[in-house]
């Protein structure tokens, strides 16, 4: 909230073979925080995650990284070099069993360790749902704060990649947003990923940290090499505007930003907010923005029905009803299983968002 | 348990297809043999208390009948003849030097197409020291217990029983919302607790209140939890019988079945990394072994060499489901080997056997840094909980038999009384005093006010987030408007 309405100028360009996506960066802002001393390098998102894990293990001897295939560096290379540097007792493969990974991680975290567990794809987190919902989330509460597993962080790559079909594409964040006791964090860029992951690991509460796997290689950004943290439960206005507020998180922000740029060409001024932490979420920043613009659009890849966009929409209508000049628009995934061939139809694309911006502004 | 889990030992010789013909020629051959389990290891533990004899011996092999069935191929009719499974895991090996390399290691080669039998011919025996009349079984090997320890164990079992009876009645009278007793399983509770060190971390299920009592959790704290008053460590948030104590290394109980088991592997891994002379202990029931978490836990603990002792109270019943509707295996101990975990089956109603087995299990877990599985055979004399009437699914006579003839308490009493360590006078004094104490703490706990409304909102996170601060204010206002709708004993 403190960072609301800060002007973020710099736009980094992400390039790939087939497409180009852009996203906002807060490099200059955080460099200011670290007094500009920190050298930074242009790195992609998996490298930023890797840096954060190196720092987490290096700065806390009670930190552990484990999960399926993490020993050799992980299927997305996020854990590269960790086992060599920190040893196989602190960085290790586990059997292929998500409920085992999270159950084990809770026990480890309950002993005052930082348990950083990897679930290879968010699509495969469901066997661990019971451990997350009934155990991790209630560990502190049910014991009257005698025990906690706050050192637990569950990392999982989520979201569309263009060819992932049902089981390598899902965005299951809303299931977890219904669970008091955990935090849900999703970064939008390499710089954000490093700072938010370090905060999540060090936060005294269990965190589910979803990583936009689309951006692992595609997003490249200046990332300070140092240890730095970005605050949880603080949304960030990454593009200021006056006609409509757009709220999103993770990889979807770059699509939304493109829509904002297109809208600007037609004279519509969009304000874009990165929620970053989905629970507990920063209502105040969104509320302040909507009170200014009078309009709200929420966008996410997950199916529209019961998605976290519904929660944002309802909360903002409660708080800003008299200021709203149009119904809240939701541009989200369809209520189908995540499809393969039909992915371009399913996704909340730039033009779908642009159309919704226009119809909301012209309501 | 025999009456509960005995089952048919018929092995069906089935045909894979019509092309296969069963050849009844069973050769007692002199071929070279290989057995996966031929290695016989023995161990002796010198526990803190001092074992006078080796406490146990593991013998991988019993003198099972060795049968070799010929596999013959008939070129013209393509008829293959075999007995398709083995009951004793013996396989004919061509040549011990001939092996196949697979990623998991070298394997010997056999010309036989032989399926491993679904279970071994003989059921795993149950380790026992005292017979039903409290006489030591000749030749039984166990850790000696001093008079002091024996009396303390006995008194604790009685305390547990008296406490359970009073609280159960209190629930029946409507004073408590819920209760569940350990009736019939006092032996496992106390004997296992006594075999552990307080440095060992306990991850309980919910029928092990005896373990936390043994560690020194006062009766008044039990009562405070049951009434969910302001002195309840859990701040009135959980149903009765969900105890926990940070000080006593007893992790707070949760209701879901089996979730604590993989967590125990994580706790144990931490103890291992901290090089502690301690292990994790987790309790579970026979029903728990069907949950995925059980499998996950055993596999993780074995692969990660976690010093954890899994104690399964096989009490025959998961609410109304008997064990023969729970699994087809020979109980639970038989599952250990498939995970690479050393296991034992013990008579859970035999205090001396259970105590010795858990002592040895703990020693091995810590010294060898590996998991151990203990299946303690017992019977849930109790109804599952106060919400259950078990006479609807099992005969009253069966319950009565286990309550009286098979009681772990009376069996142990016979033994200590015969040793001259206990008499009828001690008995009535203990029961009278305990009864008084329990009634006293119950009356006191009942009168204590509930935790303040603030406790509804704290501890969800380390700090109360904005949405909960708002909701707290909302509830306070709601109470102000309609005070009668809300309990008057919760301070706002």
Automatic annotation (TrEMBL), chain A:
Which Pfam families does this chain map to?
Answer: Transket_pyr, Transketolase_C
The alphabetized UniProt keywords are: Mitochondrion, Oxidoreductase, Transit peptide
- Tell me where the signal peptide lies: none
The record ties this protein, via CDD domains, to:
TPP_PYR_E1-PDHc-beta_like
Please give the GO cellular component terms listed in this UniProt entry: branched-chain alpha-ketoacid dehydrogenase complex; mitochondrial matrix
Q: SUPFAM superfamilies attached here?
A: Thiamin diphosphate-binding fold (THDP-binding), TK C-terminal domain-like
The EC designation for this entry is: 1.2.4.4
* Reaction(s) catalysed (UniProt annotation): N(6)-[(R)-lipoyl]-L-lysyl-[protein] + 3-methyl-2-oxobutanoate + H(+) = N(6)-[(R)-S(8)-2-methylpropanoyldihydrolipoyl]-L-lysyl-[protein] + CO2
Q: Does the keyword Transit peptide apply?
A: yes
Q: Which Gene3D superfamilies match?
A: 3.40.50.920, 3.40.50.970
> What is the superkingdom listed in this entry's lineage?
Eukaryota
Which InterPro entries does this UniProt record tie to the protein? THDP-binding, Transketo_C/PFOR_II, Transketolase-like_Pyr-bd, Transketolase_C
| Any single GO BP term | branched-chain amino acid catabolic process
Localization per Swiss-Prot or TrEMBL: Mitochondrion matrix
Cofactor(s) listed in the protein's UniProt record: thiamine diphosphate
Q: Name one GO molecular function term.
A: branched-chain 2-oxo acid dehydrogenase activity
Q: Main location per UniProt? A: mitochondrion
Q: Give the Transketolase-like pyrimidine-binding domain ranges.
A: 43-218
PANTHER family referenced in this protein's UniProt entry, alphabetically? 2-OXOISOVALERATE DEHYDROGENASE SUBUNIT BETA, MITOCHONDRIAL, 2-OXOISOVALERATE DEHYDROGENASE SUBUNIT BETA-RELATED
What assembly does the database describe for this protein?
Answer: Heterotetramer of alpha and beta chains.
Name the UniProt record assigns to this protein: 3-methyl-2-oxobutanoate dehydrogenase (2-methylpropanoyl-transferring)
Q: Which organism is it from?
A: Nicotiana tabacum
As recorded in Swiss-Prot or TrEMBL, the protein's gene is named: LOC107765383
Automatic annotation (TrEMBL), chain B:
- InterPro entries to which the protein is assigned, alphabetical: Alpha-ketoacid_DH_E1_comp, DH_E1, THDP-binding
Instruction: Identify the main location.
Output: mitochondrion
Q: What is an annotated GO biological process for this record, any one?
A: branched-chain amino acid catabolic process
From the Swiss-Prot or TrEMBL record, state where the protein is found.
Mitochondrion matrix
Q: Which cofactor does it need?
A: thiamine diphosphate
Molecular function terms, GO-annotated? branched-chain 2-oxo acid dehydrogenase activity; metal ion binding
Q: Where are the transmembrane segments?
A: none
Look up the EC number in the record and give it.
1.2.4.4
Record's catalysed reaction(s): N(6)-[(R)-lipoyl]-L-lysyl-[protein] + 3-methyl-2-oxobutanoate + H(+) = N(6)-[(R)-S(8)-2-methylpropanoyldihydrolipoyl]-L-lysyl-[protein] + CO2
Has keyword Metal-binding?
yes
Question: Short name of one Pfam family for this protein?
Answer: E1_dh
Could you confirm whether the keyword Transmembrane helix appears in this record?
A: no
What's in the keyword line of the UniProt record?
Answer: Metal-binding, Mitochondrion, Oxidoreductase, Potassium, Transit peptide
> What is one cellular component GO term in this UniProt entry?
branched-chain alpha-ketoacid dehydrogenase complex
Q: Where in this chain does the record put each Dehydrogenase E1 component domain?
A: 155-451
Describe the family membership recorded for this protein in Swiss-Prot or TrEMBL: Belongs to the BCKDHA family.
Binding partners and assembly? Heterotetramer of alpha and beta chains.
Q: What is this protein's record name? A: 3-methyl-2-oxobutanoate dehydrogenase (2-methylpropanoyl-transferring)
Q: Supply the source organism for this entry.
A: Nicotiana tabacum
